[in-house]
Backbone:
């Protein structure tokens, strides 16, 4: 179908965008790459009186290296993440999930900030943000604030963003030392929404034991989930720990696993546990070799 | 709803137009530019038939508003041809390897694979399959299409 009618605004700066959002109120929505929003409009699942296109705001784009983190502008397209060799070394999870997002034609338009602000529970970037404790920088007419990933994701397609706020950038922490990373996702076809997926980061200490562990899950709830019980169980363990058990622990506490024609909640739990197990094996393998 | 003034270059030709905000780039190309080789299958970003190049990047023109293409350079299937006006290597390969049957999806495949092979001239079979995942074909069963992309990639390496 054709999208419903709306007024189009193309601000040139962040200040102009948030002033517009504040003035337009409830009927306004930010348009970034449009790879999730436009289908919703075309299917008439969503209606907005105003779209504020942030695609012309140069200050929203780009990848900046900081000593302990990488700052990604909200309107940076996925394809740019995919091409950045330095980013692949500094935040491997971000680089490695990107090829799983849609298809290359989608990644040419889709943005990091768009995915995170859309907060689809089956999406890859929100899970990475959650696993790595990324920090969102948010602008409004009243100034800037920072929101942790834990605070940011509130539920299905729901975030801590207020109506007059714009996601400006996402700060992904860099892990140092003997680290390894794993990404596993199961979908019926490449580019489909994940039935279940896991991103895992581990760091080994001087005694070869797991000193730090982060596990993010997607497709397994109404928000991207952090598997804290599983992470705690992995801490202090030797690299040859029973990763299958960690996988089971990751999905046991989940309360709102979706059930639909692609798979029942029970099936998704089993797939989720397997994804955690495999991603953890990959991460430990990499940390051990590195 | 207030119309938006846009300036776009389509297949080398500069165009200025007033567009309704909700007009997709696909509908702009088809209805305003009469570039009807850009096919609309699903109109919500699944089938890939409407794929065009925007500033060189392959994108779904149904998932972009014409207003967003302001000041962009757009290439549709009509703009993809060899220097002599004949078929490109990708187009020849699709013909030679039976990479199409009814042809409805073909413009999207050709545009997508033109961009893919430009950026990755020596793809692995796995990369070809992944690159094709964004375009749907209901006729061929894909084997002819995969062969066509392999053929085009090999031809590019030889020449």
Residues:
């Amino acid at each position: 179908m054709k999208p419903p009618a709306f007024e189009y605004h193309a601000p040139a700066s962040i200040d102009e965008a948030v002033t517009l959002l504040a003035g337009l109120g409830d009927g306004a929505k930010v348009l970034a790459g449009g790879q999730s929003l436009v289908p919703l409009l075309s299917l008439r699942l969503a209606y907005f009186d105003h779209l504020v296109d942030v695609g012309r705001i140069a200050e929203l784009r780009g990848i900046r290296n900081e000593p302990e983190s990488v700052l990604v502008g909200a309107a940076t397209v996925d394809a740019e993440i995919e091409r950045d060799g330095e980013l692949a070394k500094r935040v491997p999870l971000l680089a490695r999930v990107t090829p799983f997002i849609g298809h290359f034609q989608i990644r040419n338009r889709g943005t990091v900030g768009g995915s995170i602000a859309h907060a689809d529970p089956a999406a890859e970037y929100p899970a990475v943000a959650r696993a790595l404790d990324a920090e969102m920088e948010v602008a409004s007419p009243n100034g800037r604030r920072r929101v942790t990933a834990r605070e940011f994701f509130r539920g299905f397609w729901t975030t801590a963003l207020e109506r007059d706020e714009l996601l400006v950038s996402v700060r992904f922490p860099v892990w140092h030392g003997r680290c390894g990373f794993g990404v596993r996702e199961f979908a019926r076809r490449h580019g489909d929404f994940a039935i279940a997926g896991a991103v895992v980061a581990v760091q080994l200490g001087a005694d070869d034991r797991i000193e730090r562990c982060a596990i993010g899950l997607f497709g397994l709830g109404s928000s991207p989930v952090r598997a804290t019980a599983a992470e705690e169980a992995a801490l202090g363990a030797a690299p040859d720990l029973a990763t299958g058990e960690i996988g089971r622990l990751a999905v046991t506490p989940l309360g709102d696993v979706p059930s639909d024609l692609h798979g029942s909640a029970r099936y998704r739990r089993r797939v989720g546990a397997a994804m955690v197990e495999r991603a953890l094996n990959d991460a430990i393998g990499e940390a051990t070799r590195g | 709803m207030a119309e938006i003034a846009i300036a776009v270059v389509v297949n080398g030709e500069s165009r200025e137009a007033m567009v309704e905000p909700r007009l997709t780039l696909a509908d702009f190309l088809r209805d305003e530019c009469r570039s009807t080789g850009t096919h609309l299958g699903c109109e919500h970003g699944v089938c890939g038939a409407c794929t065009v190049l925007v500033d060189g990047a392959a994108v779904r023109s149904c998932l972009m508003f014409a207003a967003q293409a302001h000041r962009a350079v757009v290439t549709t299937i009509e703009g993809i041809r060899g220097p002599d006006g004949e078929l490109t290597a990708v187009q020849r390969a699709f013909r030679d390897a039976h990479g199409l049957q009814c042809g409805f999806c073909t413009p999207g495949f050709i545009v997508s694979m033109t961009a893919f092979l430009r950026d990755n001239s020596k793809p692995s079979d796995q990369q070809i399959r992944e690159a094709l995942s964004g375009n749907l074909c209901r006729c061929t069963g894909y084997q002819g299409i995969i062969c066509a992309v392999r053929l085009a990639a090999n031809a590019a390496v030889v020449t």
In short: Chain A has a mean pLDDT of 97. The CA atoms of residues 82 and 95 of chain A lie 6 Å apart. The first helix of chain A runs from residue 14 to 24.
